[in-house]
Design brief:
7 helices, DNA polymerase, domain 1, Ubiquitin-like (UB roll), globular, 5-stranded mixed sheet, 179 residues, single chain, oxidoreductase
């Protein structure tokens, strides 16, 4: 049974060691932020950090992760305060959201290595496919997140996790009600 650290917690997977990490995370650990996109490593929707390196979890087996540290989108920042998450909201670089977790992970890995990447470095480090086409905003997002990491800019764009029940369900008058 493969043992690894997932989001700073020791985990032992009671699964075939050759199972892709993606399925261990989604099916056994219930960490569904890591998305299944193509299953062959082309889209990047399943990107996670493995020992700080952005890797496609559909291409890495649980056995290959034995003893390693894995960070998913859920473990990157529980309160959405990571500079990439903040910049994604501020730059409106989220459309449908399916590719967003993988993109955030890839950008976070890049900025951990280099908080001031060039446009070419950003394009090379974030190979993720986005069918909505957020690419121009994505460049601005990573540049802005870099400024935040370098403490050249302060930003608090993303809302706190969770929503107050009063804000979630508003009373709406019945359609057949007479005024």
């Amino acid at each position: 049974m493969p043992r690894l650290t997932v989001n700073d917690h020791a985990v032992e997977f009671d699964m075939d060691p050759m199972t892709p990490l993606l399925w261990g995370l989604r099916d056994a650990a219930n960490l569904t932020g890591t998305k299944y996109g193509c299953g062959v490593g082309d889209c990047g929707a399943c990107m996670v950090l493995i020992d700080g390196e952005a890797l496609r979890s559909c291409l890495v087996s649980l056995a290959e992760c034995e003893g390693r540290s894995v960070t998913t989108i859920e473990g990157l920042s529980r309160d959405r305060s990571h500079p990439v998450q903040q910049a994604m909201v501020a730059e409106q670089a989220i459309q449908c959201g399916f590719c967003t977790p993988g993109i955030v992970i890839a950008a976070a890995a890049l900025l951990a290595r280099n908080a001031n990447p060039s446009e070419a470095e950003i394009k090379a480090a974030i190979p993720n496919l986005c069918r909505c086409g957020v690419y121009p905003r994505l460049l601005r997002t990573v540049q802005r997140a870099g400024r935040i990491m370098r403490r050249e800019e302060t930003l608090r764009a993303a809302p706190e996790p969770g929503i107050d029940i009063e804000d979630a369900a508003r009373t709406v008058p019945a359609l057949d009600a007479t005024p």
